[in-house]
Design brief:
By secondary structure, the chain is mainly alpha-helical. It has a two-stranded antiparallel sheet. The protein starts with a helix and ends in a 7-residue tail after the last helix.
Length: 230
């Protein structure tokens, strides 16, 4: 946060814009990485059944912490007197450390629940505290880490405890690096046929083509027993 307030937030959002917090993004992306190592340790110590339950509960708490960390984002709402505070285009002039006036003008409202789109820059100036992948904000990586724990616990329970086959997720997970590389290629192939105002049918068709390309390639790699590893 100190580095973001000093220069990194402005640098990432300047042209050409960065992503994932820029070169210093690892400072916040280390949060889900460390959570992953702790989840592995928990499974090694407690076993699949007990470990999955504990990881699930821990994930919920981490998700809650990520949401709480996003609370200052409402200080940048453009409403009433707060709309008179200085801004630089879509961005607040004080995006990381909100000035005292913002706290004084806060009306007590809470931020949107996670996974609910925030208002646009016309209603809320862009700031560090909102869950933003571009900024690699601490609220975003913390919530993402908690969500990953919850999903991981679910897969452990279904596959390791209940003995069910993972199916499609198993194919993608067995070659996750290949899937990651392929998804960008598939997206570039599908994107020219879709617009922001495309209807439900074109969007679903595009998604099915996108998912089919990625899964089909990964299934072929799995059939040939070719796996990409780091």
């Amino acid at each position: 946060m100190v580095l973001s307030g000093w220069f990194n937030f402005a640098w990432v959002h300047a042209s050409p814009r960065g992503i994932d917090g820029g070169p210093l993004g690892f400072l916040t992306w280390v949060i889900p990485a460390v959570l992953g190592t702790l989840a592995y340790d928990e499974l090694s110590i407690s076993g699949a059944s007990r470990g999955a339950r504990r990881i699930f509960l821990a994930g919920l708490l981490v998700m809650l912490a990520g949401w709480v960390l996003s609370f200052p984002t409402v200080l940048y709402d453009v409403s009433g007197d707060s709309g008179l505070l200085a801004s630089v285009g879509d961005y607040a002039a004080d995006p990381v450390w909100p000035r005292a006036e913002r706290w004084r003008l806060w009306d007590g409202r809470l931020p949107e629940p996670p996974l609910v789109p925030p208002p646009g820059p016309a209603e809320r100036k862009l700031n560090y505290w909102m869950m933003s992948q571009r900024a690699g904000s601490v609220s975003y990586t913390t919530f993402a880490g908690g969500l990953s724990l919850v999903l991981f616990a679910g897969f452990v329970w279904v596959c390791d405890v209940r003995g069910r086959s993972a199916g499609v997720p198993g194919t993608l997970g067995a070659n996750s690096l290949a899937a990651y590389l392929l998804h960008d290629v598939a997206a570039r192939l599908v994107a020219p046929w879709l617009q922001r105002d495309s209807g439900l049918v074109p969007v679903l068709t595009g998604w099915l083509i996108f998912a089919g390309l990625v899964y089909g390639c990964c299934r072929l790699l799995q059939w040939k027993r070719w796996y990409l590893r780091v």
